[in-house]
Amino acid sequence: MFAFNPSQCQPTVSHANYPRSRSCNHQRATVKLSVGTMTSCSVYLATVNAAYLFRRAVLHNKSPLRLLRTHLSRDGMKFPLFIACILSWQVFAAFYPPLELVCRATGHASFFFYYPNACGAGIVVEPLAIVSSPYRVRRKQQIRLDFHRFTLNTGPVSRNGYRHPPTKAINRPHIDMPSRNLKHWPWRRRMRNIEDTTPNVKQTAVELAVELSPFLSSSKERTRPQPESGPIDDQPVP
């Protein structure tokens, strides 16, 4: 005879499934948030890149597609360096809107350039008044924040404040301001010392002494030693 057991009619509930379900819901929410964040960042970068290309095309009188092909061209660069330049361009694009607003307020514009021959890239800031001029004119008024390879003298410091060879090639971030005579600063800079803090004035004084030496040699009280023949000083090594 069949014996009725009430416990068999009660549904069995596994409490162990509750934490797993809660964890799955948390993972789904995290995935959705990550996908939404990536989508928003992609849309933002695409919009900023398009705005940058169109603004630069208008300022430099070039086609946006031509500028895009230039940025996506390896131009002899090695593949890892090319990828690094692309990523650097996107970092610049991420901060382009506030940077361009600051530059616009001061009458300037900012651009991103590759240096394939020097294995690097950089940010160029130039006045808006000369953006339509030839590059040789714009170059003199630019402010460049670069990261590429250049040569640097590592020898002793000469009397005029510049270093002698030997020379080595380094790849460091630096600043170029042709209008202020800054090139690859702070790595390639003039070393001021106590002996010769004003080399131009000193050179002028020596040249003046050479010209007046015939008149000064007539008096024994004013006799001064003649400067040595040959160059007064080494040529500056910028």
Number of β-strand runs: 5
Q: Distance between the terminal alpha carbons, to the nearest Å?
A: 109 Å
Strand content: 15-25%
H-E string: HHHHEEHEEEH
Unreliably modeled segments: 193-201, 218-238
Largest sheet: 5 strands, antiparallel
Mass-distribution shape: globular
Reading side by side through the largest sheet, how are the strands ordered?
1-2-3-4-5
The total count of helices amounts to 6
Mean pLDDT: 77
Rg result: 33 Å
Describe it for me?
The chain is α+β, with helices and mostly antiparallel strands and 238 residues long. Among the domains are: 58-185, no CATH class; 198-228. It contains six helices and five strands, in the order H-H-H-H-E-E-H-E-E-E-H. The protein has helices at 17-60, 64-71, 79-94, 96-105, 135-138, 199-216; strands at residues 108-115, 120-127, 143-153, 167-177, 182-185. Strands 1-2-3-4-5 form a five-stranded antiparallel β-sheet. Strand 1 (108-115) and strand 2 (120-127) form a beta hairpin. It is globular, with a radius of gyration of 33 Å. The protein starts with 16 loop residues before the first helix and ends in a 22-residue tail after the last helix.
